[in-house]
């Protein structure tokens, strides 16, 4: 149901005038879309097409070969979720439990409870993020020298790093710093050592002849 609502919002965006009338029309548009081939479909093993199931549900029975809309979609059960807008999966995923600190490892605090539409969101201590694959708090990665941060870690995602491009460098490991542009030697300076991914360029003043 939530997916249909979301689907409708996109359409609402296109026709923002007269909200009430739109709401009414949207109901019809949604139903019409669902009734035509524009509803996302999947192929059964038997080779015919069936409507996919919306967020929060799974396919508990394929449609019959003569009616693509007859797919049976069932709500995820307690403790399970299915976050894709449309799915042909036959099961929901198991919700994360925020505090699996069974073996003394760090646990997370529930920030949002699991619903049938989305996994629980768990908040970890500083410098840790909740790793969904590992189902535990995991130390945030520091980008090593030669790499800069492109995305800092979030509650549920690790830092993302990228190698410094030409003429940029990163001399330290850091979970925050991006690559910095290398120094450019001024006029009347000479390069003492070049710029590479891990070292800034070093420039030195050319000592001027002191005249007579
Ligand atoms: C499925 O879940 C939604 C949201 O929790 C609920 O509104 C709806 O009634 C449920 N449908 C069935 C058939 O249980
Ligand atoms: C980068 O430059 C520094 C200083 O010039 C040098 O010591 C280092 O070996 C260089 N690293 C690479 C990978 O070229
Ligand atoms: C280099 O020259 C600039 C300008 O002439 C001066 O401000 C700076 O202090 C000098 N640096 C060194 C290391 O001598």
TrEMBL record:
- Please name the SUPFAM superfamilies in this protein's record: TNF receptor-like
The domain of life is Eukaryota
PROSITE patterns in the record, alphabetically?
TNFR_NGFR_1, TNFR_NGFR_2
Instruction: Give start and end residues of every TNFR-Cys repeat.
Output: 75-122, 163-203
The record ties this protein, via InterPro entries, to: TNFR/NGFR_Cys_rich_reg (IPR001368), TNFRSF_decoy_receptor (IPR052459)
One Pfam family from the record: TNFR_c6
Give the main location. Answer: secreted
Q: Which GO terms describe its biological process?
A: apoptotic process
Q: Where in the cell is it found?
A: Secreted
Q: Establish whether keyword Transport is in the entry.
A: no
Keyword list (alphabetical) reads: Apoptosis, Disulfide bond, Glycoprotein, Repeat, Secreted, Signal
Show which residues constitute the signal peptide. 1-34
Q: Which Gene3D superfamilies match?
A: Tumor Necrosis Factor Receptor, subunit A, domain 2 (2.10.50.10)
Tell me which residues make up the TNFR-Cys domain.
Answer: 75-122, 163-203
Cysteines engaged in disulfide bonds, as pairs: 164-179, 182-195, 185-203
- Could you give one GO CC term from the UniProt record? extracellular region
Q: Note the PANTHER family from the entry.
A: CASPASE-8-LIKE (PTHR23097:SF181), TUMOR NECROSIS FACTOR RECEPTOR SUPERFAMILY MEMBER (PTHR23097)
Which protein are we looking at?
A: Tumor necrosis factor receptor superfamily member 5-like
Gene behind the chain: LOC109487495
């Amino acid at each position: 149901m939530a997916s249909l609502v979301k689907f409708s919002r996109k359409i609402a965006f296109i026709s923002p005038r007269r909200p009430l009338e739109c709401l009414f029309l949207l109901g019809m548009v949604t139903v019409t879309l669902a009734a035509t081939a524009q509803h996302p479909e999947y192929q059964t093993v038997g080779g015919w097409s069936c409507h996919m199931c919306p967020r929060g549900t799974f396919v508990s029975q394929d449609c019959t070969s003569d009616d693509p809309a007859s797919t049976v979609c069932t709500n995820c059960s307690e403790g399970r979720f299915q976050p894709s807008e449309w799915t042909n999966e036959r099961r929901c995923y198991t919700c994360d439990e925020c505090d699996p600190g069974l073996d003394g490892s760090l646990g997370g605090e529930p920030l949002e409870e699991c619903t049938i539409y989305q996994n629980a969101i768990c908040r970890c201590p500083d410098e840790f993020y909740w790793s969904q694959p590992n189902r535990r708090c995991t130390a945030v990665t520091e980008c090593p020298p030669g790499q800069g941060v492109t995305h800092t870690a979030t509650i549920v995602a690790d830092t993302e790093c990228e190698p410094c491009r030409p003429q940029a460098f990163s001399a330290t490991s850091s979970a925050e710093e991006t690559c910095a542009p290398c120094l450019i030697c001024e006029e009347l300076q000479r390069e003492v050592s070049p710029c590479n991914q891990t070292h800034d360029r070093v420039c030195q003043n050319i000592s001027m002849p002191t005249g007579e």
